[in-house]
Write a structure and sequence with these properties.
Helices cover about 40% and strands about 15% of the residues. It is built from twelve helices and ten strands. The strands form two sheets. It has an eight-stranded parallel β-barrel, surrounded by five helices. It has about 300 residues and is α/β, with parallel strands linked by helices. The chain has a single domain, classed as Divalent-metal-dependent TIM barrel enzymes (TIM Barrel), CATH 3.20.20. Helix 4 packs parallel to helix 5 and helix 8 runs parallel beside helix 11. It holds the Pfam family AP_endonuc_2. It comes from Streptomyces xiamenensis. This is Xylose isomerase-like TIM barrel domain-containing protein.
Length: about 300
């Protein structure tokens, strides 16, 4: 733990903006009867003490800017980012379909006054069934397509919508491990591509968030705060469990009961000297409808105790 915390002092994390996301309410899809209705999510995320939220999967929250704006204003909520999945390693053949989806999400994100678009690479296996849909590792040609596609996406999104893309390393994708992430950062233009560091996914895949922030701090444009249960993770790795069943088994856990320890991560992020969103995103699909609010409330209280 950092020296400030060792001394028993509360660090003032004045550059960190804490928010939450539909994911922390068990939302993975635009529509699913197992998920929390969007009105309840908005009511409860506000009740839990958060000001900032992400849009979640496109179509979960209202896509009409006027309606969504009214719903957010009524609850004193503000959007920090939208989210898209992409498969840009497949090359120019997927660009038009990718852009059609990205442009819808980017337009709504921009209309809500946000400045970031979280971009997640496509999974290489189905998150529920485990069926392999792509090679687990990219060929040199696919890697070049991925980096070139992300750079193009970053420039197009900024030019047309005024948003910065933040690419999100994610379990069961081609951008997951420390080697994947550092290789990707070294191969992409910092002016076009920033990183969304998800502390839970990075730990899930063996990465050290504090080391990444200290080594590539100028590329970190956004944070997702999340922890993994090390005992469940060990079993997930031993069994080769796909990400969906791993989440259902509780691999992503409530802070501060997992890894990584968040105070050093937040201290390292504060040390960058820039304003950063840090969005709580506890994967918990599916979950009982009454489970998210108490967890979200305790998590917000915990992060306040850390100075955020």
């Amino acid at each position: 733990m950092d020296d400030v915390r060792k001394a028993g002092q509360r660090m003032d994390l004045d550059r960190i903006r804490i928010g939450s996301a539909p994911d922390s309410w068990g939302v993975w899809f635009p529509e699913d009867p197992q998920q929390t209705p969007w009105q309840r999510f908005l009511d409860e995320v506000s009740e839990a003490g958060y000001q900032w939220i992400e849009l979640g999967p496109y179509g979960y929250l209202p896509t009409d800017p006027a309606l969504l704006g009214d719903e957010l204003t009524r609850r004193r909520l503000t959007v920090s980012a939208g989210t898209v999945f992409t498969a840009l390693h497949r090359g120019p053949a997927v660009w038009d379909a990718t852009w059609e989806h990205v442009s819808r999400v980017a337009a709504l994100t921009s209309a809500m006054g946000a400045a970031h678009l979280v971009v997640i690479p496509e999974f290489w296996r189905d998150s529920v069934t485990g069926e392999q849909t792509d090679p687990e590792h990219l060929s040199p040609t696919q890697f070049r397509e991925l980096t070139a596609g992300m750079e193009r996406l970053g420039r197009e999104v900024r030019e047309r919508y005024g948003l910065t893309i933040v690419v999100h390393p994610h379990a069961d994708t081609h951008l997951a491990t420390e080697r994947d992430v550092t290789r990707f950062l070294d191969a992409t233009d910092p002016d076009a591509v920033s990183l969304c560091l998800d502390t839970g996914h990075y730990a899930y895949c063996g990465g050290d968030s504090v080391r990444l922030i200290k080594t590539y701090g100028e590329r970190i444009g956004y944070l997702h705060l999340k922890q993994v249960d090390p005992a469940i993770l060990a079993d997930v790795r031993a069994q080769g469990t796909p990400f969906g069943p791993a989440v259902a088994s509780g691999v992503m856990c409530e802070p501060p009961h997992g890894l990584p320890d968040l105070p050093p991560v937040l201290a390292a992020a504060q040390g960058l000297g820039v304003d950063l969103f840090a969005i709580v995103e506890q994967d918990m699909y599916p979950c009982p409808p009454d489970a998210p609010l108490p967890i979200a409330t305790r998590t917000r209280r915990y992060l306040r105790s850390c100075g955020a």
